[in-house]
Design goal:
Length: 87
């Protein structure tokens, strides 16, 4: 299995809520991680959440677990929800 790259991401929604999640992809590309974070936020109804390069930073590389691997294969990235994210 290929190594995936994890970008530790914190965002603040328009309502002031903080969400913490990892963007996981097969390329170590911060611009793509930022793009995918914004795409995911829009898909869950938070297109106005603030996410920047400073709060979407490369963290480490690891083998993605099966559920993230499936997300990456289906959409090019996976989201691992940590704190404050919708279920």
């Amino acid at each position: 299995m290929p190594l995936s790259h994890v970008f530790d991401t914190y965002v603040k929604t328009a309502q002031g809520r903080i969400m913490h999640f990892d963007v996981v992809l097969d390329e170590q590309d911060q611009a793509k991680a930022l793009q995918y974070a914004k795409e995911w936020l829009t898909s869950i109804g938070h297109p106005d959440a603030v996410v920047t390069q400073e709060n979407c930073a490369f963290c480490h590389s690891a083998e993605a677990p099966p559920e993230l691997r499936q997300q990456i294969e289906n959409q090019g990235y996976g989201i691992f929800k940590l704190e404050g994210c919708p279920k």
